[in-house]
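User: I'm writing a short report section on ligand binding and want a predicted complex to refer to. Could you take this sequence and octanoyl-coenzyme A and write out the structure as tokens? A short remark afterwards would be nice.
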Amino acid sequence: MSTDSSASGEQPVETTDPGSVDADGAPFLQQPDDGSGHLELAAELRRLRGLVAGSTFEDVHDAVATVRELSDHLEKVGTRVNPFTYETWGVPEHIGANPAIGSRNPISPPLEPVVFPDGTVRVELTLGIEYQGPPGCVHGGIVALLFDEMLGLANAAAGSVGMTADLRVTYKSPTPLLQPLRIEARQIRTEGRKIWTEATLHTGDTLCARTEGLFIEPRGIRDEDRDKPIEG
Ligand SMILES: CCCCCCCC(=O)SCCNC(=O)CCNC(=O)[C@H](O)C(C)(C)COP(=O)(O)OP(=O)(O)OC[C@H]1O[C@@H](n2cnc3c(N)ncnc32)[C@H](O)[C@@H]1OP(=O)(O)O
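Assistant: Sure. The structure tokens for the complex follow:
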């Protein structure tokens, strides 16, 4: 998504594309473009989402009609995904619909994680007004969503998979909108089916929030699914 300039000309005014890949990190959980235009559609809707949530209008009835027409069109030309019939998790229909990382989901920022040799997973992102809680700050529930996702990805990077059983978030300092954010997650230890994973969220050198999660590996997990993240 494009980054615009505020009146001061310095700050972005909307959620931006994720940060570029760090030289030391490898892209993790890439979601390939199938060439259908689906990802471009989602990106355009992300732009729309920010405009709708973050603007005031005198009269947008024309836009209502246009968007209704678009929805009717997509209903006609699309094949609906059934979330109860995936062969396994991690297939594009599954990951793509995820509200934190899904490239097909206009709700997602989306995250574009990189993984480091020590198993740390990192994302860099900037969130716009559609993620606002307190004025100028990211909603605490959004922080928890992003943390949950990142912990799951760190588990996947470590070759394990677990359902979130306990997620504790400590909010240390307001998480600003429209400022570059960095989330880093890593698995700490495992014991039987229990997995402990931690993450931090910074803006610059300021720690905004940290989290500790306990994940439980589902019973009967297949070996080939261990490095695939469970979606929240
Ligand atoms: C793409 C990136 C992925 C993002 C990741 C997102 C992950 C998610 O959001 S998952 C969705 C949210 N989470 C859920 O819906 C989970 C709902 N809960 C459940 O399904 C179950 O309670 C589940 C699977 C966690 C555990 O159930 P079950 O497998 O029966 O575990 P159970 O046998 O009772 O317990 C196993 C061990 O874990 C412990 N345990 C289980 N739950 C907890 C808990 N909440 N707190 C502390 N310990 C717990 C038990 O005490 C037991 O310990 P021990 O072996 O020492 O006796």
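A remark for your report: The domain at 26-225 is CATH 3.10.129.10 (Thiol Ester Dehydrase; Chain A). Residues 67 and 73 are 10 Å apart (CA to CA).
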